[in-house]
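Long-time lurker, finally posting.

We've been working with ATP-dependent helicase YwqA (Lysinibacillus alkalisoli) and I want a structural starting point before designing mutants. I don't trust myself to interpret raw outputs, so I'm hoping someone here can both generate the structure tokens and explain anything notable. Sequence follows.
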Amino acid sequence: MTQTPFTKSLQLHTTIDDQDYVHIQSPTHSAKQLNQLLCYRYPKNFFGTTAQERESLILPLYQLLDVLSETYRNPFLQIDTTLNTLLPLWESNELFDYATFDGQLNFTCEHGTLLRSAVLSALHEQGIAEAQLETLLPTLKNGGWPLQAHRKIDDVYVAVRLSEPVTDDNWLLETVLYTDTTAYWTPAQRKKTSAIEEALPQKWKALAPNIQQEQARLIDLLSLSQHSEQFLSHAMSEGDVRAFLRDDVSLLQAFGFEVILPSWLKSLQPTKMRVALQAGSAKAITSLDDLVNFNWEVSLGEHTLDAKQFMQLVESERELVRIGTDWFKVDAEWTTQIKAIIDKATKEKVTVRDLLLTDVMEEITPELEDDIDPLLTFQLQKTMQQFVATLRDKEQIPTLAVPPLLQATLRPYQKQGFEWLTFMRQQNLGACLADDMGLGKTVQLITYLTALYDEQPSAAPSLIICPTSVLGNWQKELARFAPHLNVYTHYTAQRAKEDTFNPHLCQVVLTTYGTITQDIHFLAQTTFAAVVLDEAQNIKNMQTMQSKAIRQLQGTHHIALTGTPVENRLAELWAIFDFIQKGYLGTFSSFVKNYITPIEREQDENITEKLRMKIQPFLLRRTKRDENLALNLPDKQEVKDYCPLTAEQAALYEAYVSETALSLQDLHGIEKKGKILVMLNKLKQLCNHPALYLKEPLDDAYTLSTRSFKVERILQLTSEIVSNGEQCLIFTQYVGMGKLLQYCLNELYEIEAPFLTGSTTKSQRDALVDGFQSGEFPVLLLSLKAGGTGLNLTAATHVLHADRWWNPAVENQATDRAYRIGQTKFVQVHKFITLGTLEEKIDQLLTDKLALSEELIQSSKWLTELSEEELQQLMTLER
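Top reply, 14 upvotes:
Generated this for you. Predicted structure of ATP-dependent helicase YwqA:
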């Protein structure tokens, strides 16, 4: 370009990164100044939509070539850059003469690689994929490049127009011409079949060859067979129109052809039909399997369709429908669902269950007092309304007598939970009991099982699956509340194998998630009366072997127990529902699309409410904070969490007992008493974690957690407490145990848990207490002696005793850090006990008191006064 007196020279240094972005610098101008100088005629960048201003001005390669081209170049700049050598071809419609396509685009000219990158980026901007070039290459070679904003010959624009049907079902696609001052022109009807030159008015006849050439490009782009010598006039079915709108409009616009659509079509939104059902039944509805008889009518806008019209519409798979003078874009998928319901009602008779489990449940189920006009409206008998309301609200579930053999007194909400589980079984619906921890999900399930086997003594056995860390709890609770039930614990290496497993010899099979994974090949062959998952969030990852094994189990009734707020963990929610009512929430990919993405990413409250309504019939959740439930809970509740030893702990335990038993034989008096206390303390540390007993350093947190079921359970429970927005105290006698829990909570759950010990200064103590009370952190670890007295920690609603003290008074003093004057909430105390060890035996001794005096119980000296036989019994590991 020749420099004029008004032209300024600008030198650019350019580098191209591996993403085909050009980094542009100038020794005399900043990135912002370069953007203003280069792009002032290029709207995409001048308004800051794609250019990035950092140390350099960063542009896609194709945009920089556009900026430097004749169309957008700053006329007052002479730009010096190595990329100028690409411009002659970039601006020429001969560029594609050098192009080949053999699965991908290539250029056989100099700088072919750069040109390929620039072209693909430019086409991608227009929505054109590389794969489409196989058919588009002839058009691009024949003057289709460079892509244009319009197709204009002198002052005449060549465009294409789509018109809706007038007298039949065919749409019309035709070429139209216009200028800036004239309306759209098409040839008169009598000249539709004439050659283009003959059909044109006199003023445009000289443009006929150019118009014919542009229309030929148009026909090529649409892959039509019509000859280009006549003006395009092409009839299209509705299916053709859908494909045209989906695939062709953006392509034509990319090549500069304006596409003129009916104005109503541009703004038309998908419309769901409104279906009014008048439902009736010959009797009061008491079951999901009762038949529903109904008449129906379909409406679109203010228009009503009879059954024949509706069926014709669905079977023709129409999306664009004209009724009278109005046009509608119909949601075809939803229409197909409605047709399926109507077909079923006509041919097979529909039941209440069919309506409940359909994918449009949330749209067709009415509220008793519902002002919202649902898309599928019902005029229901009052009995059906009440039944559907029962499924949702659970207030009118039939009451049942508590089984007389149950050894427990149920609270009102626990009785309702038992009644709900039984009702869901009767209706053949899965159930998720998601009460807060501490509200007694276990006793509700045991009541359900007791009633089941009282009513059906010969029923198939039920299977309860739980984490290993709570297996002992289930054993104890079943023995406590339902001692008459025949329970088989399918666990340990000595468990029954495939050839000896006979579940029909018992009523309840109790096992663990890990055992199920190993034995699924024969457990899946039994159809259980009920399959129950405790801590059901364990199957949240549907790709694990454990989760896949669980889904192979056969059960007449599937129940999930969980204390975590499943409504807030959507992937976990899907996994649980896929177990209790398979298919109800669709596939996981559809659930991600329909629920997880709009709820978690977009916080869509309508979708959240839609999901809540959908899961409500299958979910029962009560919380301790719900005042409306009037739970009448005690101020404090103490529970014992029984945890088995791991195989490693059991082996170390037995070896140490054998070793020390021999050494005690030669000791007497104070020396023997001292040895007993040392021995008991080492065994207690071993019950906590083998790393404490072996004096090992802290290593991988996950591995540490798996070496002790007690530690694993404490970590899980603490995580649940924090997830529920509550706070807890964790007491331990051993600094090593406190540090181990502190380390694992931080590493595995990202929970910061300060540790108050005897070495904590007064100022540090005061700061920790104030921080905990104000909610700065949810968990506080305390050594039993340092934190057992003198502290006010009423922000805690849970107290966890990681290890048991021989003196109950010391434990009670520690508990009273939370349960004291100023505490306004329910406090739950968890005492962790390892099964079969001295922890369980001492707990039993203290419970029974063994006729010991209060003085002895309040100290630990009674332990050293035990006889050789009593001591041996105390230490022996019971498997």
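Before you design anything, note these points.
The CA atoms of residues 427 and 593 lie 30 Å apart.
The domain at 640-875 is CATH 3.40.50.300 (Rossmann fold).
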